[in-house]
């Protein structure tokens, strides 16, 4: 899809997409933001592949991208609420400054995005090791996969974490 075709797609379907998103979010501003993000994703995909995107059913495609963005939106919202709940329970002596709170929030959102980028089995293996404290043999037994596969999944996760850390 050329930039011209993308512009035409935007002109023809942006209003519909905003209405579709509004029905799911109940907020005009959030619907507009996610509609814009949907078209930005299309533009990025087009530029990344260098190929023209051919959309036989543009509304179905836009709804799929929009649905994913709505899911991400609610997941981030849930994560932020859990973070705010945790802050409310902290004793005064351990209270974070507004800047520290902001940095912590941004780090949590980035970690959530990092974990969301993992393949499901890599994420499961990584979380069992890091949060549950299971060793590779225990993970292997629990998931009924070989220890070698556990090691391979952990290597993928650690590589992503190292790249993530370098980006901070």
End-to-end Cα distance, whole Å, is 34 Å
The beta-strand count equals 0
SSE string, helices as H and strands as E: HHHHHHH
Q: Could you name the ranges where pLDDT drops below 50 across 5 or more consecutive residues? A: none
Give the class from helix and strand content and strand pairing: mainly alpha
Portion of residues within helices: over 70%
Mean pLDDT: 86
Shape: globular
Q: Tell me about the biggest sheet?
A: none
Give the number of helices. 7
What Rg, in angstroms, do the CA atoms define?
20 Å
Overall number of structural domains: 2
Describe the structure.
By secondary structure, the chain is an all-alpha fold. The protein folds into 2 domains: 1-97, no CATH class; 118-168, Orthogonal Bundle (Arc Repressor Mutant, subunit A). It is built from 7 helices and no strands. The protein has helices at 3-25, 28-49, 58-89, 98-117, 120-130, 136-143, 147-167. The chain is globular and about 55 Å long. The two termini are 34 Å apart. The mean pLDDT is 86.
